[in-house]
Design brief:
This protein is of the alpha+beta class and 823 residues long. The protein has 25 helices and 25 strands. It starts with a helix and ends with a helix.
Length: 823
């Protein structure tokens, strides 16, 4: 019996080469796509699953107090929060903190005096119990007291090979240089490289107690740089724990607010602000973009849903193709089925034969799909920035999914043909009365509408995503980010050398201006609480940076009122320039009357006079709103990280000239600090990098859209060929009575055009709803234009008419005598 079914399958395969090819291509594309998306979704949802106690670990988040958006959450807290939470919540068994340190120059000098130096940005300070809570595998070293001794450091296996090769790293000393400060750590342990599916990313861990400032600030809630985790008792009721969190800020943040803001916690709330803390499960961190994250970049869950939906669409299109093309061949096989019935075959046996044929199609397509998958995984991994390998398929869960998918597609794609082709009476089949196929026409038309509705949805979604990203890349950010470069690590020069270096940069042909500052957009985190004098509020958060008098001109920031800093004014260290948003937040009138107003800092120990107001600009990129901002001089006494950047404006007519300018800057760098690495970036590229995940999403969506169009077009091609075959005699008779080729082409294309128009109408509300949800993640977003749907619809309609028209014209030129002959 099975041999008979296989023989029948190969006979039909050979007899209907085009239809078989379309079926196999469609089904294999569906299987390949679905497996790719499964691997991607499985990878993204596996983050942090390797930690043994993951179900009881929570990150402590808090209100983002540095923004006037009171409902925003920040994935880090002050250093004192962990102690307050542990003290007030008996459900907390232990807590730990991480602090991301600025990039440092790390040097190892071996016994021969040879030095190996690299800039390292993946350095975290961790509490002594960090490795007890999280399950990072220790390869070498004593697990006791790894992060207790302030002179220790724990490194990953890759870092060990990078500095020590195959030699034993334990006990070796690494020298760190940061912002003019030098310190050393002794290697006490080596961890296996952090898994790629970890939301905690680092290369080195230094003890938290090695940082003097942390020791002195452990009481504070305001230094919000600490990523805080707590481990709860397995029997803890999380709802009750969250309820208890509400009272903790009032009891413990009071000291910080009173000490640093000179107001009570209630006064703080009375100004319309919030200071709440939250618990976020470890498993939720990687898939939640609503919380600002310091250590890693989370993935937008909507993108994962979109990928899954697109994969479902591709599978649906493949199944529809198979169903449609199989049912369109029922006329050719009706007499054969009728003869089998007359010879004694039951309906069940016929159905089983058709289902077996469907299964063989799907099985063969699965083999082709797996070959496609083999070649697709590396490209897709790079595109989605995920570490996917073919080895991930070699487990029982994936194999089960694959066979389940084959069975599902076999039933969906072959079920209807099996029922339809086995249902008619053998006498009707022998007489040719099944030939009209009117009963199946509505189903076929409905399936075509679904196919092209999906295609239009994918095309429209791709165009909307493209428009949004184009808008994000080109939106006015309040300063000139194009042709703006930035040099890092100017703190390796003393103040005199820095100024000389920047002055010499301005002498290089092609450099318009240059400035020294402590932060360059969009990489900015410095901010504090200020007390405006003569205002209705007591305190307000304001972000700030330290600059020189060339900063505004170099970035092209507009000065609305007042003046810039200048060497002509010796007291500018006591002055400040603030943004429009800062004026609005404080409640001052946005006009020249703001000049001369004063901002107090540190309980009045420092008072700054407002000498200028600048236009708002997006100093943190386009992910969030524009918050209040202030500019101070380098000698203002305001706290800074010790980092200095050189920012410069370039006027290069070509890429060759740009390369020459950069080479000249590097040579100038070597003159000043020859033993330090030269690092630069372009601000527009840094802004674009904020949307890299969305750019990847657009590329994947474009691929899926193209694949959907290809599958739908192949299916339409098969249906059109079938329709023409069924109307061959009609076409011949029409030609004999005077119809021309154009009339025949219109006759045959009209029905398909109606189906496409119905698809377009259906796709518009569905696309608008789905993409509106996706756009919600953008602070600055476009309005969906009707033009998008017009372009998508015309593209699909034109493609349909081209396919239909070509074959209709071909049929129109056929000899009518051949068409009306008896079979």
């Amino acid at each position: 019996m099975l041999k008979h079914y296989f023989s029948q399958f190969f006979r039909n395969l050979k007899r209907n080469k085009l239809f078989s090819l379309i079926n196999i291509l469609g089904l294999s594309a569906g299987i390949c796509t679905s497996m790719l998306i499964y691997l991607y979704v499985d990878y993204q949802t596996s983050f942090d699953n390797f930690h043994e106690n993951r179900e009881n670990i929570y990150r402590v988040n808090q209100t983002f107090i540095w923004s006037d958006q009171v409902d925003e959450q920040f994935g880090s807290t002050g250093p004192g929060v962990v102690f307050s939470v542990a003290e007030d919540l008996p459900e907390v068994t232990r807590g730990t903190r991480l602090l991301k340190l600025n990039a440092s120059l790390v040097t190892y000098e071996n016994k021969l005096g040879q030095k190996i130096s690299h800039m390292e940005s993946g350095v975290l300070a961790a509490d002594s119990n960090f490795l007890d809570i999280f399950s990072f595998e220790l390869l070498h070293g004593n697990p006791k007291d790894l992060l207790s001794d302030p002179s220790n450091i724990v490194i990953t296996e890759s870092i060990s090979k990078k500095y020590f090769g195959d030699h034993d790293p334990l006990g070796q000393v690494l020298q760190f240089e940061y912002a003019g400060m030098n310190y050393s750590h002794r290697v006490a342990g080596v961890l296996k490289d952090v898994p790629s599916n970890s939301s905690l990313v680092f290369d080195m861990l230094t003890p938290m107690n090695s940082i003097p400032r942390v020791k002195s600030q452990n009481w504070s809630w305001l230094w919000t740089g600490f990523v805080t985790f707590v481990e709860l008792n397995p029997n803890a009721n999380i709802a009750e724990v969250r309820a208890k969190l509400k009272d903790i800020p009032r009891r413990h943040a009071e000291q910080t607010i009173q000490s640093l803001m000179n107001m009570s916690y209630q006064d703080y709330l009375d100004e319309g602000k919030k200071w709440d803390i939250f618990l976020q499960p470890l498993s939720d961190i990687h898939l939640n973009t609503n919380v600002l994250n310091r250590i890693s970049t989370p993935v937008n869950m909507n993108s994962i849903y979109a990928y899954g939906l697109a994969a479902g669409f591709i599978i649906l299109l493949s199944c529809i193709n198979f169903t449609n093309l199989t049912t369109t061949q029922h006329i050719k096989r009706a007499k054969f089925a009728g003869i089998k019935k007359l010879l004694g075959s039951s309906r069940w046996q016929l159905s089983l034969g058709y289902m077996t044929e469907s299964f063989i199609y799907c099985l063969g397509s699965a083999l082709v799909g797996m070959v496609l998958l083999w070649y697709s995984i590396p490209y897709f991994s790079q595109l989605t920035e995920s570490e996917l390998t073919f080895g991930h398929l070699m487990n029982i869960k994936v194999v089960g999914l694959l066979f389940g998918l084959i069975a599902f597609m076999s039933i969906i794609a072959g079920g209807y043909p099996a029922l339809f082709l086995s249902a008619f009476k053998p006498i009707d089949a022998m007489k040719g009365k099944v030939k009209t196929g009117k009963g199946s026409a509505p189903l076929r038309n409905g399936l075509v509408i679904i196919q092209f509705t999906v295609s239009v949805i994918l095309i429209s979604s791709t165009l909307i995503a493209f428009d949004q990203l184009s808008y994000s890349y080109t939106k006015d950010v309040g300063f000139t980010k194009d042709n703006l470069g930035a040099l890092k690590n100017l703190e390796w020069m003393d103040e005199t050398k820095r100024e000389s270096f920047i002055n010499e940069l301005t002498q290089i042909p092609g450099i318009n201006s240059a400035s020294i500052c402590t932060s360059v957009p969009p990489d900015h985190w410095s901010g504090d609480q200020f007390e405006p004098i003569d205002a209705t509020i007591q305190t307000t958060p304001i972000d700030y940076t330290l600059i020189d008098d060339q900063y505004l001109g170099t970035l092209g920031i507009k000065l609305l009122y007042g003046r810039n800093f200048s060497d002509d004014f010796s007291d500018d260290k006591n002055n400040v320039i603030i943004s429009e948003e800062a004026v609005r937040d404080i409640g001052w009138d946005l006009d020249e009357s703001v000049l001369g107003k004063k901002l107090s800092y540190d309980h009045g120990n420092q008072v700054f006079k407002v000498i200028g107001v600048i236009s708002d600009f997006n100093y943190r990129g386009l992910r969030g709103t524009v918050d209040a901002f202030a500019l101070f001089t380098h000698d203002s006494g305001m706290f800074d990280s010790g980092r200095f950047n050189g920012v410069f404006s370039i006027d290069a007519a070509s890429s060759t000239q740009l390369t020459q300018i950069l080479n000249t800057i590097e040579l100038k760098w070597q003159e000043f600090v020859s033993d330090r690495p030269f690092e630069y970036l372009f601000v527009d590229e840094a802004f674009a990098a904020n949307f890299q995940a969305e750019q990847n999403f657009l590329e994947v969506l474009s691929i899926f859209s193209s694949l959907a169009i290809l599958i739908a077009s192949l299916g339409l091609l098969g249906i059109i060929i079938y329709a023409i075959e069924q109307r061959t005699k009609e076409i011949g008779i029409r030609k004999i009575v005077g119809a021309n080729v154009w009339q025949i082409a219109v006759l045959l294309s009209k029905q398909h055009a109606k189906l496409i128009l119905a698809s377009i109408v259906l796709s518009v509300p569905l696309t608008w709803f789905m993409m509106q949800q996706w756009l919600e993640d953008f602070e600055y977003r476009i309005d969906i234009s009707p033009f998008v749907f017009l372009v998508s619809g015309l593209a699909i309609l034109s493609l349909t008419l081209a396919i239909s028209g070509f074959h209709s014209v071909k049929a129109g030129f056929s000899n009518p005598v051949d068409a009306i002959k008896d079979e």
